[in-house]
Design goal:
Helix content is 34%, strand content 5%. It is mainly alpha-helical. The chain has one domain.
Amino acid sequence: MTAPHPDPASEFFTLEHIPALLSLGQVARALNLSERTVRNWFDKQKLESVQLTPNSWRYVRPHDLATFAARYGLSLKWETLL
């Protein structure tokens, strides 16, 4: 049985194909949601993100996105990132 939210490191998606850090736009595309929705999750700290420097853009690790999507029953379209 195929998992509904494959981990990027699975046999279908390797880390070679998925960026190490995903931008807000990439996250929104992968979830087929608006950037505003994703930004709200960042602001409410529902979706874990990292900043490379203080006050810089926020990024999401693929594993954190997969975990978040599985927790909330969201479909991920990793192919939009390839």
